[in-house]
Amino acid sequence: MDVYIAGTLMVPDERGKQDDRAVRIAKTYGVWVALASFAGPTGGGYAMSGGSSGIWGPDGVVQVQAGAAAGEVVSVTLG
Known about the structure:
Number of helices: 1
Oligomer: single chain
Helix content: 10-25%
Distance between the termini: 14 Å
Number of strands: 4
Largest sheet: 4 strands, mixed
Structural class: alpha+beta
Mean pLDDT: 92
């Protein structure tokens, strides 16, 4: 496995859990981690979601991370 990719949906106060999970996966498996996290209201029970999509390097260091606002896009060139 070279990259762990996941789509997530969480409430704003769970953002720290998402970051912790990404770091743990990256360090444990030595892979890039890309999490696409829904931002804004879903219309399906979440008045507001956490957002904060991001990409972490194999060392667990965040390379780039979006905020909580809908429409933010992040990218990085994997090496």
